[in-house]
Design a protein that fits this description.
Blueprint lengths: L4 H11 L15 H10 L3 E8 L2 E9 L13 E7 L1 E6 L2 E6 L3 E4 L5 E4 L3 E9 L4
Antiparallel strand pairs: 1-2, 2-8, 3-6, 3-8, 4-5, 4-7
């Protein structure tokens, strides 16, 4: 039986609570659905995929709520899905708009500023134990 993209995404999220296992080939996940759910609920972060060494999530920020991130233990890449604003990384401000991407090294102090509503795809390189 073929599952819809939404059913596959729900299955993937349920499985993401477990330890990462072997990667399934061409496993889709619903980035747009996560973005819509988070925007409707005033923002937040939702993991859409987790496997060995990798975590992909959707992060939505809605002003006036500030970005309260703390430095992470893993390298990450942010890809702007929608909106515009800036990312402060170690005191340096990088202006971003839809379609831009930025790398943030592990341990760097960073946060988004100057946004109304921002939707971001977050890709973490997860450290191996």
């Amino acid at each position: 039986m073929k599952l819809s993209v939404r059913e596959n995404a729900e299955k993937e999220m349920a499985e993401s609570a477990r330890e990462p296992g072997p990667l399934q080939t061409a496993q889709p996940f619903d980035i747009a659905g996560a973005r819509e759910r988070l925007a409707a609920g005033n923002g937040g972060y939702e993991v859409v995929h987790r496997s060995r060494g990798l975590e992909i999530g959707v992060y939505v920020l809605v002003a006036p709520e500030p970005d309260r991130q703390q430095p992470h233990d893993d390298d990450e890449v942010y890809v702007l899905l929608g909106g515009h604003g800036s990312l402060e990384v170690e005191g340096q401000e990088v202006e971003l708009r839809e379609g831009h991407a930025v790398f943030v090294p592990a341990g760097a102090d960073h946060r988004f500023v100057g946004y109304e509503q921002l939707s971001v795809l977050v890709i973490f390189e997860k450290s191996q134990p």
